[in-house]
Amino acid sequence: MNMMNGRLVVLCLAASGLGAGVATFCVMTAMKQEALPQATQSAVSEALLLRLEDSLAEVQGELSVVRRQLEVASAQEKALVDISQRSIRQNKIADIVQGQGRADSFINSVRLSVQQAWVIPPVTESGAVVEVAVRLGAAGELYSASITQSSGNADVDRSVLLAVEAAAPFPKIRQLPAGLQQDYHQFNLRFTPGDRV
Predict the structure, then answer these.
(1) Which of 110, 137, 161, 163 satisfies CB 3.0 to 4.6 Å to 117 for a cystine?
(2) Mean pLDDT confidence for 166-172
């Protein structure tokens, strides 16, 4: 085998990865060359080599384009994943903010209901402050109410407890997101006679 045929075999081996048709073409060409005179074989081999080199260069160019397309697709996929993760985080933050808004609304609703039910004793200092701990069941029913900070006036303290009992139940607790409901089964409220609406 001369140098040209050696190059042909190497190119045919390299081209064999490109598909069965190219490999078959290389084998058939090599078999035909054995029957041709040396000068003709050289010319045919050279033409075949040029053709194979062109085909190989074309395939390599196509592979390069495909690689670039894959890189672009991969970058786009990464960008979409980043956008998706950012969106998920923003939705979680929005849920937390919305849940906190509902919780604040619930506490304000309880406070308003108690204030409306509160019958303030006639002899009460306007600066008196009463803090009451409220414990609720899952449906908003009142389990207990107890004074955590006394106003110093037993009648005022008792009137706040009676107002909490009169305003119960507080079913709006069920409107809170499930994760927050548990946090609001027990809470404290502060009342002063001047706060009454």
Answers:
(1) 163
(2) 91
